[in-house]
Design brief:
263 residues; alpha/beta; eight-stranded mixed beta sheet; 10 helices; 39% helix; globular
Length: 263
């Protein structure tokens, strides 16, 4: 039986899965009132204070540096992996559908990495979608950093101009040694990006670009290293306003109006 630890990134008290492999982690805990029975991400080797910019990545960094397990993963308090074909509408019942350790161990017999099913954008490629909805300067600087530090990844990065789908949300489950390789690469790029960009030029929503760029970098790393993985469906614990999201997407594409908040 494998030792599997999956952190649940959360910034507030919320219902949690009963399965013991899930560890509630308070992301951005530095300077905040601590949530009872949650592990704060400002212990040990951590970047908790960067949470306003790095989002759930402060939790991923904490897990990478401080957890001892065969497999380590990250999900969100409002997003989980699920094997269920039919998703109930009631939130309490949704928690009964969350991926269990028993289900996961069966998957890990064949692969060492679990990723969410790809999100498809259809009418845009990944780069143009980012350019329309966010400020593109950080993504452009990321390309230059990869060109300088990891040129062997540049061709894969440039595929963002052609691909129309990606594994999003920074959700993953990886064998520890694979996670170590990925995080070493990812955070080296992001910390270099931090040296080159002043986040204060953006409002609080757009200053979280590190978390968004990392979503795009995951497939760059996975594809370049030919990592074998299996996709699992994602379940949203809270209802997503797809109409509002769709309208905002069309405004961004055709009028240049950037996103102003999450959906």
């Amino acid at each position: 039986m494998s030792n599997i630890k999956i952190i649940v990134a959360a910034h507030k008290k919320y219902q949690m899965p009963k399965d013991k492999m899930y560890i509630p982690v308070q992301v951005g805990a530095e300077g905040k009132e601590l949530i009872e029975n949650y592990t704060p991400d400002n212990t040990g080797d951590n970047i908790s204070k960067l949470n306003p910019y790095f989002c759930e990545l402060t939790g991923l960094y904490w897990a990478w540096k401080n957890l001892d397990a065969d497999y380590i993963g990250l999900v969100h308090y409002r997003r989980y992996f699920t094997e269920s074909k039919k998703i109930p509408k009631e939130e309490d019942k949704k928690f009964e559908c969350v991926l269990t350790k028993e289900q996961l161990e069966e998957k890990l017999k064949n692969v060492d990495v679990i990723l969410p099913k790809k999100r498809k954008y259809y009418i845009e490629n990944l780069y143009s979608h980012y350019e329309h909805t966010m400020y593109v300067e950080p993504l452009e600087k990321t390309r230059k950093i990869i060109q300088d530090k990891y040129p062997e990844y540049l061709d894969e990065f440039d595929m963002l101009h052609k691909r129309t789908s990606a594994h999003m949300f920074n959700m993953l489950i990886m064998r520890k040694d694979i996670l170590n390789e990925y995080c070493t690469w990812l955070f080296d790029i992001l910390f270099e990006l931090q040296k080159q960009i002043d986040e204060s030029k953006y409002d609080s929503f757009h200053a979280r670009f590190y978390g968004r760029i990392s979503e795009l970098l995951l497939d760059v790393w996975i594809n370049k290293n030919q990592i074998k993985y299996e996709e699992i469906k994602v379940i949203d614990m809270q209802n997503v306003n797809w109409f509002k999201k769709g309208i905002s997407f069309l405004k961004a594409k055709f009028t240049g109006k950037k996103y102003e908040n999450s959906f």
